[in-house]
Amino acid sequence: MTNFKTLKQYTFGDTILHYLINDAQVVEWMVYPKDMANQVVLRQNQNSGFSLIQAKLVQDPYDKNFSNGLTMFNSATSRSIRFVKQEEHFSKDEEKITTICRDSHGNTYRHDVSWVPGSKRLKVRVSFTNTSGHDQQLSWLPSIVLSNISPFYEQVPTGVLDLIRIRSKWAMEGRLDQRPVESFELEESWKPSGLALVQIAQYGTMPVRQFFPYLGLKDNRFDVTWLIMLEGKASWQLNAARLDNRLVLFGGLPDADNGHWYKDVAVGETYTTPFAYITVGHDELLKCSRRLQAPVQEDTLPIFYNEWGTTWGRPNAHLISESLPLLKQHSIDGYIIDAGWYKSKTSDWEQSHGDWQVDMMRFPGGFKPVVEEIHQQGMKAGLWFEMETVGRLSEKFQDTESLVQRNGHVVTTLKRRFLNMTNSNVQAYLNRHVLELLRQNAFDYLKIDYNDSMGVATDDAESGAEGLEKNISATLKFIDKLHHEIPGLVIENCSSGGHRLTPAFIERTELSSFSDAHETHSIPIIAANEWLVIPASKNLIWCVLHADDTLEEMYFHLISTFLGRVCLSGDIRHLSTDQWHAVDQALTFYRANQRLIAHGQPFRFGSSILSYRNPQGYQVCGFTDKETLDESGRLLLIVFGFNLSNSEDVDLRLSSHEWQVQDIVGAKKIGLQSDKTNWHGSIPANCYTAKAITFVRKREIEHFPA
């Protein structure tokens, strides 16, 4: 048994970092809300200490508890890590706490926690320096380990804690999975010998396919939620584990057993993990998740048109010239040329990309006159690249020296191979064909797509997972270079939509697409799901307009874009006057509320929706201009009906005495009325329908005239 005492406490905003140390010099930490400090229990008689730094060197034993092959947590390396000292680094831009430890081999570890004043999240990472005098090989080094979850009890009661995960699938991203920890079998065993473990992981270069790199725990009794999100470049792992009476969250790069990661560290060298982000707060999950996100900078949200849903991979200069006056008439801010603009041996846009020669049949004068024409209409000009892969029919497909290999063979999927982004020749190639093409033609916008994964491993590092990490790190450096070399360039992050919705990509780019859900009715469900991981101001939502759409259908898809950023496409040359009137009405409404969408606090409630393919139910969501409804003076409320079996009257949870309607756009079928207490919406059956309403608190009417 071991007892812990306080080493040091730090207050970062509304969060306390509380470091603990035991007689064996093992350091742990707790993270909890400042207003819960008086509720904290320093648990005594713990079975063991779990160092805030975990690691496994190849030569050291695994733990017992049937963990071999499942996890490297609590390895002999970890159990030998002891406290050396703690350092503080404070400036006006950043405050950082560094905890330095050493293992039994003499290696040095740094645990860095940094906080930007005013933010509500912490950045955490670990560094390993080989000071042993011998070459070392790591087989695991997580970015974050958080024990002492919910430190408000001597023993956490049954049924109090929920584990939180976010599932994902193409065209179905962001489904929340929140259940009691006991349903995951995260319970203490009757005999302290069995490890309870839940692992979520993603392997390859699409870091969001089955799960987001996001894991949380909520204490329902005290209404406190802890959330972790990994930087998420390529492969990753997140775990919740219970060993004896201790519940722990940890994660980062995958371990050697599960994700093929090893790292050789020579004497004197240092290896540093990717970042993990952590927050803890009260309130509902959506508000707590928002704490994890970088602060929003945008005040205006430009509206873009992408021709993909119009040409489906066959763009041309004539169509652009024909479309631009029409788009200008309706105040569109940018025109994006999507896939298929390059010389090709086939009509399949996926098989010829990679050589990046402009198709002079489609663009007889090249891009320069096209971009000039777009600029003359007052719009930004954008271009699509899938710059990290090459199509089967491209010449670059045969350039094996430039391509990713595994086990000595070029990695090949059905239509693609993958450029080795760490290769200097590849970087030079991209400088010529991507950077210079954009710069010489004065493009303002770049859509980066990525439509396949190179799998679990590459040959160009000491381990497969490290090869992936280096490859994607090189991609991110190239994105940084594009921003540096072309000031003001707007970059869209896309990976068959949302397969790269992680901080590594979200925070380097101005916009991110979720899945190619252009033609589905689940778009507003997915878009609201995404609020857990991405600010609405960066969440690009498509609306593909069809000439045969009814006005009800058109309003549904237009209003779906109000949950983030608007991207229009479709049959714009064939829309009727009434249809264009609906578009104009919707976009005018959107622009009037853009600052509220960018900076407001999102909210959401509604019925449980089982199927995303054929959704049935309703969703009410929107944005308040303050953190809470009671503080708010204005809000945007959006009602969606998804093919209900029977019409439904929905309480909108707004007092009819306090709130007044300012503006409305959308379906006539949705009724809006108030009784003596609240506002209500009447949602009809057997259709997909939507209505957006701005409400103003009656006492503030004079500040927001109708």
Question: Which helices and strands appear, and what pairs or packs with what?
Answer:
Elements (H helix, E strand, L loop, with lengths): L3 E9 L2 E8 L4 E7 L22 E2 L18 H4 L2 E9 L4 E8 L5 E8 L6 E8 L6 E5 L3 E3 L14 E7 L7 E6 L15 E7 L8 E9 L4 E7 L5 E8 L2 E7 L3 H4 L3 E3 L4 E3 L3 E6 L3 H8 L11 E3 L1 H4 L5 H13 L4 E4 L30 H9 L3 E6 L3 E3 L13 E2 L2 E2 L5 E3 L5 H17 L4 E4 L15 H22 L4 E4 L9 H4 L4 E3 L9 H8 L8 E7 L5 H10 L4 E6 L6 H16 L1 H6 L1 E6 L10 E8 L9 E9 L5 E8 L3 E8 L4 E4 L3 E6 L4 E10 L9
Parallel strand pairs: 21-22, 21-32, 22-23, 23-28, 28-29, 29-30, 30-31, 31-32
Antiparallel strand pairs: 1-2, 2-3, 4-9, 5-6, 6-7, 7-8, 8-19, 8-20, 9-18, 10-17, 11-12, 11-14, 13-16, 14-15, 15-20, 16-17, 24-27, 25-26, 33-34, 34-35, 35-40, 36-39, 37-40, 38-39
Helix pairs in contact: 11-12
Supply the CATH superfamily name of one domain: alpha-galactosidase from lactobacil brevis
CATH class term of one domain: Mainly Beta
Mean pLDDT: 94
Q: Describe the global form.
A: globular
| Structural Rg | 27 Å
Structure description:
It is built from 13 helices and 40 strands. It is an alpha+beta fold. Among the domains are: 4-292, alpha-galactosidase from lactobacil brevis (Beta-galactosidase, Chain A, domain 5, Distorted Sandwich); 601-703, Immunoglobulin-like (Sandwich). The strands form nine sheets. Strands 5, 6, 7, 8, 11, 12, 14, 15, 19 and 20 form a ten-stranded antiparallel sheet that branches. Strand 25 (405-406) and strand 26 (409-410) form a beta hairpin. The longest helix has 22 residues, at 464-485. The termini are far apart. Mean pLDDT is 94; it is low at 702-706.
